[in-house]
Automatic annotation (TrEMBL):
InterPro entries: Phytyl_CoA_dOase-like. It comes from the Bacteria. The lineage of its organism: Bacteria, Bacillati, Actinomycetota, Actinomycetes, Propionibacteriales. This is Phytanoyl-CoA dioxygenase.
Length: 268
């Protein structure tokens, strides 16, 4: 465990090409960010907490499109010291700060996204639709906890779409999949859809449009994510119900405040 913890605290060398790719395309995939040993050390605890805390018990056939896309369990770090070690990793947070070009980042929240065997598509969307942030300096690290071939439903990105404002008012839905599939193709944002090696992770901006294919394998696609924000990020006035609900991730704060609640510690 000492070895894996030290990896979570160690630096990772971002190339100039990695940084340029992120600036230009709104996302970047990075190989060998975590070793197989580190993933193996934390995956059972993360998966155990997903099983324990999951509240979705409807059969797949009875769920809506969002419900079929994945099991979503948030802020696992509050329920496990082991998960807290993973989520608060200085290695992962430092990469986020460097890609965003900011001095410091804090935690917004974590999310486990487990696409079950037979789980459906994750429709096209931009995460920042859900977040009441004053700027675009927010990024998600997407950490698969297994090798993720195309059949398992890896994350796919519309390269450069972080500059595209059409469709930012659409939640994850059948409508967002249909409207954005057409709009992104018309604007010629290339779709980057590739498998993930074990230890490979991606970072994407809040306004980068992405989706994922279904999981046609007989095992769950296990993914842990952490959302980072510029440590000086201010809360904006919510513009939809989802953003109003998300104020609960920042207790004791209100629009105009810096996100600095006890649930949003500085990680780097």
């Amino acid at each position: 465990m000492t070895v894996t913890r030290s990896e979570l605290e160690a630096g990772y060398t971002l190339s100039q090409a990695d940084r340029a790719h992120f600036r230009q395309h709104g996302f970047v995939k990075l190989k060998n960010v975590l070793s197989p040993e580190t993933i193996a050390a934390y995956e059972p605890e993360i998966t155990g907490k997903v099983i324990e805390l999951n509240t979705q018990h409807l059969p797949l056939a009875e769920r809506d499109t969002y419900g079929k896309a994945f099991l979503q369990v948030t802020n696992l770090w509050q329920h496990s010291e082991r998960v807290l070690e993973f989520v608060s990793s200085p290695r992962l947070a430092r990469i986020a700060a460097q890609l965003l070009g900011v001095q410091s980042v804090r935690l917004y929240h974590d999310q486990a996204l487990y696409k079950e065997s037979g789980g459906g598509v994750t429709p096209w969307h931009a995460d920042q639709y859900y977040w009441p942030f004053a700027t675009d300096r927010c990024v998600t690290v997407w950490v698969p906890l297994q090798e993720t071939p195309m059949e398992m439903g890896p994350l796919s990105f519309a390269a450069g779409s972080h500059t595209f404002e059409h469709g930012r008012d659409l939640p994850i839905s059948d409508e967002s999949e249909r409207v954005l599939q057409n709009a992104l193709a018309e604007q010629e944002f290339p779709e980057v859809s590739e498998p993930f090696e074990l230890g490979e992770v991606s970072y994407h901006l809040g306004w980068t449009f992405h989706h994922a294919p279904p999981n046609t394998t007989d095992v769950p696609r296990r993914v842990m994510t952490v959302i980072y924000v510029d440590a000086t990020m201010e809360i904006s006035e919510p513009v939809n119900d989802a953003q109003r609900n998300d104020l609960s991730w920042m207790p004791g704060t209100q629009p105009g405040d810096v996100i600095s609640s006890p649930l949003n510690p500085v990680l780097y």
